[in-house]
Amino acid sequence: MADVSATAARRVRSRHCHGGDGAVVDTISGLPDVILQHIFTYIPTKYAIRTSLLSKRWRRVWCDTPSLSFNSSILNDDWINQTPTGYTAPKMMHFHLKSDKKHDAPHIDKWLEFVMSRHVENMVLSFLLLKYSFPDFFYVNPSLKQLTLKYCDMSPECSVSWTSLKKLSLVRCSVSDESMAKILSGCPVLESLTLNRCHGLSYLDLSRSLRLRTVVVVERSSSVTGPKVIEAPHIHYLYLRYAQFPCTLVDVSSLTEADVDTNEVITYSDKVMNMLEKLQHVEKLTFGGNLLQVLSVAQLRGVPFPMFEVKALTLKTRIFHYVIPGIKGVLQNSHDLKKLTVHTIHCKTKPAKQLVSSIWLSCPGDQKMRSVGILRQSA
């Protein structure tokens, strides 16, 4: 059966790639420009430019591709600088630049000025090992909709005007409270904010970001700390991963979904319960295994848990004795819970389901409306 299928596949490929006389037919070149340009958006620009050697028609195709992607660590700076001379697309949808060379700094201003002149909408910039300060014109861009910055120093000295920006992601960036406030004030339609291993930020005030709905904060180590305080009265989704002590949530009154854990098992403190009290009203909660171990300590110490209004609870953990008291404490205080999902790690699903089900069924609430799902996943 396998041999028949393989033979059939070869016949199909043969009909598509060869003419009746056995000559090779170039089916790719027959595609419309817009499809070829869409394909080019998934490959580095240097490969797209190389296709211009095929024919005059291919030379025209790459020049109008609405996407450019460069990695200066494997490309010559002069080669990148020559690219704009042949680029004719009036509108650029995506621009991706990765640079880890110190001598790239003088060229970056020109590259950014060029892509911004083409009204770029989605930009990803990564400056590893490079001390680079953005020019003022970078902070004024009415066409930008998505921006991801990695290893950047965010210290705007001018007013920020990203009037169309909806999604902002900062990865390993340096940003102060003052700079973040200035950035947020220039993003009136911002909907999603990600702070991944950023440092310098202490108080994250999102009270004036009226359209902001999603916030992601990730802290991988104690040496790079995220914001200590978060005030976000308008957000609907919150994802928190802290290395040590959790942050203080001031106002998250509009929150409907939260995913919370620590990146390592931390010592229990009152900050943990204070954070959970701010999540009492959330209808969809996800707790990780490290947090459940901390809650187990609280349960064994007799620390009272807040009453949760959660209707759908997800636990991402390995089921073992260090998390059982924490799970029990959460379930005992979740009388409105309708659905419980457990993503298990390194344990058999059937015993895990039996154990968690027995804990849940022993807790108060309407057992007729309850369901338990156990999903096994790798670590």
Automatic annotation (TrEMBL):
Signal peptide: none annotated. Residues 25-73 form the F-box domain. InterPro entries: F-box-like_dom_sf, F-box_AtFBL13-like, F-box_dom, F-box_plant, LRR_At1g61320_AtMIF1, LRR_dom_sf. It comes from the Eukaryota. This is F-box/LRR-repeat protein At3g18150 isoform X1.
